[in-house]
Amino acid sequence: MTTATLNPSMAKAPEGTLAPTAVPTMLASGPGTIPPKKAAVLVGLLFLIATFTFAIGNALIHSYFASSTAHNAILVAGVFLLACDGVAVAGNGVVMRRILMARTPKRSQAYCAMRVAECLTAVTIGVYFLTSHTQWGGYVLAVYALSGAAGLILSSALLTSRIVPRNLSMLGVVGYPVFLVGSVLAMFNVIDVTHGAGMLALVPSGLFELALPIRLFTKGFTSERAVA
Hints:
By secondary structure, the protein is mostly helical. It contains nine helices and no strands.
């Protein structure tokens, strides 16, 4: 029978070591915490919200600047969705920090910081578009760079903590470096990750961000009993 009290010694365990307490215990300690199943669903939902709001918002912004007759409402809608993406990724970082803190404290904090930085970047870009009405195609790469770095930290922490299956974590560990390399090459105009063959750099990490929510919706986080 698990207890709802978080062992203080576990909270200070060195990063990379496995705490002896099940994942549900880590999530159920203290007032105002989220039950483990609900936390898993919330993380999965935030991933999907971020993915779709960014994709649709980016499409609307591109459409606005590609047409000389586009209405300002299109830009406003695109910027609003970009802000929604920012809020979703920041929320994802905060929730995952709580979940991972006991097992990978440094990476949980780094992941949260990267997601908050991604949120601030998205909001700043949106304000720039609304105030200047000037096109800047490179904003996608700026967001991609932060997202890729955050994803690599997360998948590495998931691999260490074992709260999702190893093969799913490895998909992120392999996919996000490919994503980051593709983003860097795109910054130097070597490839274009938004069109043609360059989009292949997005596939592995994209599969991870689709498979992870499905896993969390259906199975939740893996308990210590299941992975021991």
